[in-house]
Specification:
Elements lengths: L1 H29 L26 E3 L15 E4 L5 E3 L4 E9 L2 E8 L5 E5 L1 E3 L6 E2 L4 E5 L11 E8 L2 E3 L7 H4 L13
Bound molecules: zinc ion.
Zinc ion binds next to loops.
């Protein structure tokens, strides 16, 4: 009997501890986000790739260790020069112009706190324009990319000043369809 009572007491203590933890978790939800709390995930709002139907990713996203550390703050998509560049989701153009000699278009995505950037791109839109998914925002410039001899579009995604992986915007049906992203070995 005594051992059973002890067991009950122990179970009661565990239950109390569990309820306390639950209460703390609920309180934590109400509190403003503390430093170090992971940011909300990137919503898969894109309805098209910026270029082509499924471009080759020449270089993926390499998050920098700190805000100013080295890394690759976006993805490089293989595309011919002068190809049209499309808004991946509805939004408003927040920048269309040149930065350090490169054409840059930035679009704030409707219903999110995110903005995408495309470069090097000669803009065919201007700041303040509303765009739908698939609307052409400019054309790929021949020079100014960091893909060497190959022309490419550097596609970026930002929440405030924090860079994120733009591929996170693509729903699985866009990310996984079409030609394989692996280069065929026999073509060399
Ligand atoms: Zn790049």
């Amino acid at each position: 009997m005594r051992s059973r009572r002890h067991l009950h007491t122990a179970l009661g203590s565990l239950l109390a501890l569990f309820l306390t933890l639950l209460t703390c978790a609920a309180r934590a939800d109400d509190a403003p986000p503390a430093p170090g709390v992971p940011p909300p995930p990137v919503p898969a709002v894109a309805r098209t790739w910026p270029v082509g139907s499924h471009p080759l990713v020449l270089r993926g996203w390499e998050p920098p260790a700190t805000l100013y550390a080295r890394g690759h703050r976006g993805v490089d998509l293989s595309t011919p020069a002068n190809a049209p560049v499309r808004a991946v989701a509805p939004g408003r153009v927040s920048f269309a112009g040149r930065v350090a000699g490169r054409g840059v278009v930035a679009v704030e995505l409707t219903g999110t706190d995110l903005r995408t950037t495309y470069e090097p791109v000669t803009a065919s839109v201007k700041k303040g324009d509303e765009v739908e998914a698939g609307d052409v925002v400019g054309t790929v410039e021949l020079t100014g990319s960091h893909c060497g001899a190959t022309s490419c579009v550097h596609w970026g995604l930002l929440r405030g000043e924090m860079y994120l992986d733009p591929l996170g915007l693509l729903p699985p049906w866009l990310l996984n369809r079409g030609p394989s992203r692996l280069l065929p070995v026999l073509s060399f």
